[in-house]
Amino acid sequence: MSDRLEIAGRALQRPLCNHCLGRLFASVSRGLSNDQRGAIIRSSVADAPVSQASAAGCYICKGLFDEVQKFADLSVKASGGFEFNTFLVGTKIDAELIEREEAFWTETGAKETESIKSEMNREIGKVLEKRLGKIVDFANPELVFLTDTRFDQIVLDVAPLFVYGRYRKFSRELPQTRWICRECRGKGCPHCGGKGRMYEMSVQDYTGPIVMRHAEGTEDFFHGMGREDIDARMLGNGRPFVVEVRKPRKRAIDLEAMQREINQGAKGIVEVEGLRMSTRAEMRAIKESTHSKSYRVSVRFQADFDHGKLNEVVTSLAGKPISQQTPNRVVHRRADLERVRTVRRLEVESVKGREVVFIVEADSGTYIKELMHGDDGRTQPNVAGIVGVPCEVLELDVIAIGDKGE
Ligand SMILES: [Zn+2]
Ligand SMILES: [Zn+2]
């Protein structure tokens, strides 16, 4: 203790407010504010040369703690019009002040200190909790008040809103996400027929803007658990997705009404279900997940063939690994590399002359069309190769996503 009294004695050679005095010993005891701790320390240093500094005269903060109420007022004003339950305060402090504080730690030998920034954040936060009736959340705040104490400015950081759901897609001409024209970047040019987009609509366009309108946000993003080809339907249990809306003003959303509105607007082309609130963490998990997918794929062979060959297809592929070189159709925009995927299940659903329908369950990321026609030998083994007759894919549907959802 005598050590601490010596430090306090040295510190009080300078005029200090109780906040800045108490902060030198911040980690000594819990349950006291620095302000309270400072007052106690001051009274125990009998021969303190400076008995009391006005806040404005404080050597370290020059009266910054007198402005806490003002910063809180500015924050309350900045939050106007935003619905939120949790928040966090961050502050920017004059670099000169911080240098002065750190030099003072060396000068006094104080080691149990807290930075002024951290105390400022907490003190503004305490006032705001009372004023707003909301709580500070360090992990996932919905609003962050970035307080620049030098210029009395508040920058408001609004956490995005995330909505989870599953979608089915009944069109073979609909991409999953908005597809802006690469030539004109959306302005409209001959390449895109003046529309700025390669496809007028997408699953994103049927969902995102409606979520955005309900949340009164500024921008929407669509995150799917993988994606199907534009010409593949998405059936069965539907594909999990998360819509992200930036800068939402509303967070209490009538999800059922929103779901009805999406489904009415999408007129049977897209259908969503199970809408609920989500989080950034879930969005990331969905994007990174690697569940298997099941497909129905119908194929036409170029010539008649021995149907007995289909047994060979099943025995050669079901439960077996296959090697896939990046398909010809995407190699212009993706790295050309080999990947090994497992065909977990392969069954023949129906055979009619040269046309065969297969049910395939395969690892996430398997190229199913290429598994059928072989892609000039880039996928090995492949159905056409085993049958000995080239084939083309007529239709492809995703019929199940292998996550737990129903
Ligand atoms: Zn001070
Ligand atoms: Zn264009």
Characterization of the model:
The chain is α+β, with helices and mostly antiparallel strands and 406 residues long. The protein has 3 domains: 2-158, no CATH class; 161-288, Alpha-Beta Plaits, CATH 3.30.70; 293-401, Alpha-Beta Plaits. Helix content is 30%, strand content 27%. It has 12 helices and 14 strands. The strands form 2 sheets. Strands 5, 6, 7, 8, 9, 10, 11, 12, 13 and 14 form a 10-stranded mixed beta sheet that branches. A hairpin with a 4-residue loop joins strand 3 (143-148) and strand 4 (153-158). The longest helix has 17 residues, at 116-132. The radius of gyration is 32 Å and the shape is elongated. Bound molecules: zinc ion (ZN) (2 copies). One zinc ion binds at residues 181, 183-184, 188-189, 191-192, 196. One zinc ion binds at residues 16-17, 19-20, 58, 60-61, 65.
Concise description?
The protein is of the alpha+beta class. The protein folds into 3 domains: 2-158, no CATH class; 161-288, Alpha-Beta Plaits (2-Layer Sandwich); 293-401, Alpha-Beta Plaits (2-Layer Sandwich). The chain contains 12 helices and 14 strands.
